[in-house]
Amino acid sequence: MRDIELDMHTAEDNREVAWVDDEDFEELNKYKWHQTYNPRTLLSSVTRTGKHPETGRQTTFLMHRQIMNPPPGYFVDHRNKNPFDNTRENLRLIPHRKTIADMDKGSK
Description:
By secondary structure, this protein is an alpha+beta fold. It has helices spanning about 20-30, 65-70, 95-105; strands at about 1-10, 15-20, 35-40, 45-50, 60, 75-80, 90-95. It has one domain (about 1-105): Homing Intron 3 (I-Ppo) Encoded Endonuclease, Chain A (Alpha-Beta Complex). It has 3 helices and 7 strands, in the order ββαβββαββα. The relative contact order is 0.17. The radius of gyration is 14 Å and the shape is globular. The strands form 2 sheets. Strands 2-1-3-4-5 form a 5-stranded mixed sheet. It has a two-stranded antiparallel ribbon with strand order 6-7.
């Protein structure tokens, strides 16, 4: 496991690193990653900005999605609910419908 340093934006818990597997480190470390906090959802995430490979438009990339490359209709879930732990062991693909059902049951 390796640490990716984060460029700090305003955030509640002010972490300075995200954890990734050795196999993902080299590719992810090419970019400048940020901690982003969404006050609407009360969630933090690890993001970067860049040009979308197909459209060329500026877009935001989420680290966990870049690692897992989910197919359409799937979300990437952090098993331990820690958005800074982006090791593959901690990430899993979940169908959109299951995520909605889990949220309805209160198991966010």
